[in-house]
Amino acid sequence: MKLRYSLIAFALILSGCNISITSFPSVPQLPTALPTEIPPTPYPDTPVPPAINESIVQSPALVQIQFLNELEAWGITETQVVRTNDGGITWYNVTPPDVAETGVTVDTFILDQNHAWVQKPDFNNFPNNGLLYHTTDGGLAWTVSSTPFSAGDLSFVDANYGWMLADLGVGAGSNAVAVFQTTDGGATWTQTYTNDPNMKDAGDSLPLGGIKSDLVQLNMQTAWVGGVTYAPGIVYLFRTDDGGHNWSPVTLALPAGAEHSELGVDKDQMQFVSATDGFLAVRMAGDSTQTAVYTTNNAGNTWTLTPTVIPNAGESDFLSAEEAVIYNGEQFYVTRDGAQTWTTISPNIVFGDSFADMDFVDPNSGWVITVAKNHRSLYRTTDGGATWLPVIP
Predict the structure, then answer these.
(1) CB 194 within 8 A of CB 176
(2) Nearest to 220 by CA among 172, 183, 248
(3) How far apart are alpha carbons 115 and 104 in whole angstroms?
């Protein structure tokens, strides 16, 4: 799962659009008495990881996390970018200089333990200007360059090649965007597409109508943009095979009854786990909310609807061609056979509406961020979601 905080979603709130939102079923809040034991270092027989040469942040109030393995992770708070190399017990401040706010005000992409990017919008010149901070040493040093966009969805194929789906504005169920590419790590960008009718050479192959959630890239030629149109039976999913210059709709086989539901491809619900294997989770909101899961093993040329429609809709984490975890507001659904079958796991803590984010590195090891009474905590499981202990109480 990519660590990205996009202003496209944030812009929906500001725009005042009439957007329907389906909530999880009402469930109890976190119990008042929580376990207080902090789990041990994941690998007790290995040496203590070396300290990162930055200041320690005590109990950071994490907004989002991305674990690269059981030890290495990046996190975002409302004001800082942080890193850990001991499974989340110790966090270090690696915030770029001159970035006083993070959270929903920046767009972030983490490639690995060394390479990361933070896009800071210029709100005085929105949506046409911003600053992109880039690190190649895990946040110890950052370079900065100006960008011809302010905010959106940032992603990189490797340390040099990347995409940006720039948010140009939301209104009345429509979302103008522009597509950019970089070949030098974000120092310079080239626009390959826009659907803004007010801009020169605007196209319509990626329709203006519909709210775009994110761009999912396979390489520098092939990528997808997903979102929602708020019309029943329509999946907003488009593909490019020429670097974003032209887009075509993707046709999916729908589950029975989906033609009467609002269908959405939410942020981070489409992921490729290899050059050929990927997952797609489609939210179906009608009389009830369900999640349909699709898989591909031919680089997205075709998508196969899997047998189980999961009740409710929540966070998904796709780990390999065989393994995935979905949280549906009450239980964790775990597959080890490419979404052909799922095992349900009931957590010892009912997260309910306090659930804010999750990240798994394999079907057993994962972390969850909770928010209860404006307090953020971090929990960890090593048994697939059955047992959770606080790392940051």
Answers:
(1) yes
(2) 183
(3) 21
Q: In the numeric block, which tokens belong to residue 9?
A: 């979603």
3-state secondary structure of 259: helix
* 3-state DSSP helix/strand/coil % of the chain, to nearest 5: 5, 40, 55
- Gap between the Cα atoms of 19 and 261, Å rounded: 14
CB 318 within 8 A of CB 333: no
Structure tokens belonging to residue 84: 């850990």
What rounded mean pLDDT belongs to the chain?
89
* Distance between CA atoms of residues 212 and 222, nearest Å: 17
Q: 380, 39 in Cβ contact below 8 A?
A: yes
Q: How far apart are the first and last CA of the chain?
A: 24
| Extents of the domains making up the chain | 1-19+59-251, 256-380
User: At 204, which amino acid appears?
Assistant: D
Give tens-digit pLDDT for 331-366: 999 999 999 999 999 999 999 999 999 999 999 999
- Residue pair 365/358 in contact by the 8 Å Cβ criterion: no
- DSSP class of residue 263 equals E
What percentage of the chain exceeds 90 in pLDDT?
81
Residue partners of 215: CB distance under 8 A and separation at least 6: 153, 155, 163, 164, 165, 179, 223, 224, 225
Strands across the sheet containing 162-171: 152-156, 162-171, 174-182, 190-194
Phi, psi values for residue 13, rounded to 5°:
-70, -45
CATH code of the domain made up of 1-19+59-251:
2.130.10.10
Model confidence over 282-320: pLDDT tens digits?
999 988 899 999 999 999 999 999 999 999 978 999 999
